[in-house]
């Protein structure tokens, strides 16, 4: 039996500009990908050429039966130099939004998805007290130009990610002496070369380079969330009809006996402490991929016998329901699932993941939780940051030699669910 979702439910898929557009030459990530000794497996290059092929991609999404598309506007394109806004870039994103309107697709626009302009990093990056103002100025400009086309805006993607990176780095520092002894000489040399090249390229000492995806101080993390609140105010002033939210990456945090305190601390750090910044939003963008389990000594490894994805995550689609319920308990806002998915070459497992995740979403809605949409990550197989093109999250495969799009069975499966609900509710 098909699950019945509410009238107006948003069925979609998501992308991020840098991962799909290609040639994002003014961004910090583009610079970091090109350097000698780069930590990136490969540069993004033309990516999957979405900057040129967006109309066909949006038409394909609609043709599958989906009615929403979450994508990001690239700050480094809009404002390639501080205070200089590129009108041709605005026109490009206007054309994307018009294409969404033509195809009956609701756009959910993210204004910052990990990448920043190079000039921002040279100006102190996300540790600078001026960054929230600069981000709000950019958001105000975009929304003044394009807000009439944007019903939903996410200010910052996974705003809690710098905190997660900071925690990982601290864990590594605790065992730094062991790591240094065990580190391959060639890898150490590559890291040193990369750090030197990065310093030269940005004209800053290595420890003063602060992109979004880097360890940030408490002040830096506060800057990220101040950027959200200042952007929210700017958006509401420029485009009052646009609903404003943020997205956070949240594990389904669990514990075994003795791990309860660790689990409580983790959720406090990753979600609860940020509620004061979020409570005045119009919606919450929830992103979940797996669970994290804590024991008496801290985080437990993924069980050896568990099914794992290409990312090394435990295959755990039921985590989405648990996280929705947790967020709903603590934050009284409508929820949009802005990312949920799996990296795999076994598309049958992607279909199984979607079905189990959607069953959880449906159960939450049946219990009165206002979940307004589900955006699968991702629409296309794309550039997965430091991991290059090696991980495949897409509903649609891409032949990168020809840029031909090849929808997978999972794309048609999710589209059938969306179409069935459209027939039921219309």
Automatic annotation (TrEMBL):
<dbReference type="GO" id="GO:0008422">
    <property type="term" value="F:beta-glucosidase activity"/>
</dbReference>
<dbReference type="Pfam" id="PF00232">
    <property type="entry name" value="Glyco_hydro_1"/>
</dbReference>
<protein>
    <recommendedName>
        <fullName>beta-glucosidase</fullName>
        <ecNumber>3.2.1.21</ecNumber>
    </recommendedName>
</protein>
<comment type="similarity">
    <text>Belongs to the glycosyl hydrolase 1 family.</text>
</comment>
<dbReference type="InterPro" id="IPR018120">
    <property type="entry name" value="Glyco_hydro_1_AS"/>
</dbReference>
<dbReference type="GO" id="GO:0005829">
    <property type="term" value="C:cytosol"/>
</dbReference>
<dbReference type="InterPro" id="IPR017853">
    <property type="entry name" value="GH"/>
</dbReference>
<keyword id="KW-0326">Glycosidase</keyword>
<dbReference type="GO" id="GO:0016052">
    <property type="term" value="P:carbohydrate catabolic process"/>
</dbReference>
<dbReference type="InterPro" id="IPR001360">
    <property type="entry name" value="Glyco_hydro_1"/>
</dbReference>
<keyword id="KW-0378">Hydrolase</keyword>
<feature type="active site" description="Nucleophile">
    <location>
        <position position="339"/>
    </location>
</feature>
């Amino acid at each position: 039996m098909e699950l019945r979702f509410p009238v107006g439910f948003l069925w979609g898929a998501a992308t991020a500009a840098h991962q799909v557009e290609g040639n994002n030459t003014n961004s910090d990530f583009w610079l970091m990908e090109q350097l000698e000794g780069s930590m990136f497996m490969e540069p993004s290059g033309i990516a999957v050429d979405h900057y040129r092929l967006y109309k066909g991609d949006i038409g394909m999404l609609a043709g599958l039966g989906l009615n929403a598309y979450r994508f990001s506007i690239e700050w480094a394109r809009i404002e390639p130099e501080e205070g200089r806004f590129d009108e041709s870039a605005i026109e490009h994103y206007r054309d994307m939004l018009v294409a969404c309107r033509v195809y009956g697709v609701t756009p959910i626009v993210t204004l910052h998805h990990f990448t920043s302009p190079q000039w921002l990093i040279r100006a102190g990056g996300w540790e600078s007290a001026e960054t929230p103002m600069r981000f709000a100025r950019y958001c105000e400009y975009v929304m003044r130009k394009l807000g009439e086309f944007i019903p939903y805006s996410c200010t910052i993607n996974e705003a809690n990610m710098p905190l997660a990176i900071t925690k990982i780095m601290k864990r590594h520092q605790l065992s730094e002496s062991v790591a240094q002894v065990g580190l391959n000489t060639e890898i150490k040399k590559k890291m040193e070369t990369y750090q030197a090249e990065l310093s030269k390229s940005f004209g800053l000492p290595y420890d003063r380079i602060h992109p979004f995806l880097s360890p940030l101080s408490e002040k830096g993390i506060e800057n990220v969330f101040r950027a959200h609140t200042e952007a929210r105010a700017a958006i509401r002033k420029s485009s009052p009809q646009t609903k404003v939210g943020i997205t956070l990456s949240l594990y389904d945090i669990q514990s075994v006996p003795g791990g309860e305190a660790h689990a409580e601390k983790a959720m406090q750090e990753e979600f609860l402490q940020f509620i004061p910044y979020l409570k005045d939003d119009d919606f919450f963008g929830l992103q979940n991929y797996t669970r994290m389990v804590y024991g008496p000594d801290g985080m437990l490894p993924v069980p050896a016998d568990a099914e794992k994805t290409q990312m090394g995550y435990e295959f755990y689609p039921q985590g989405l329901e648990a996280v929705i319920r947790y967020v709903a308990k603590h934050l009284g806002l409508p929820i949009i699932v802005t990312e949920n998915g799996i990296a795999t070459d076994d598309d049958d497992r992607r279909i199984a993941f979607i079905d189990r995740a959607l069953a959880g979403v449906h159960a939450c809605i049946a219990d009165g939780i206002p979940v307004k949409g589900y955006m699968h990550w991702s629409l296309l197989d794309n550039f997965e940051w430091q991991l290059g093109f090696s991980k495949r999250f897409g509903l649609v495969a891409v032949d990168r030699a020809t840029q031909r799009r090849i929808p997978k069975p999972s794309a048609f499966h999710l589209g059938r669910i969306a179409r069935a609900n459209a027939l039921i509710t219309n």
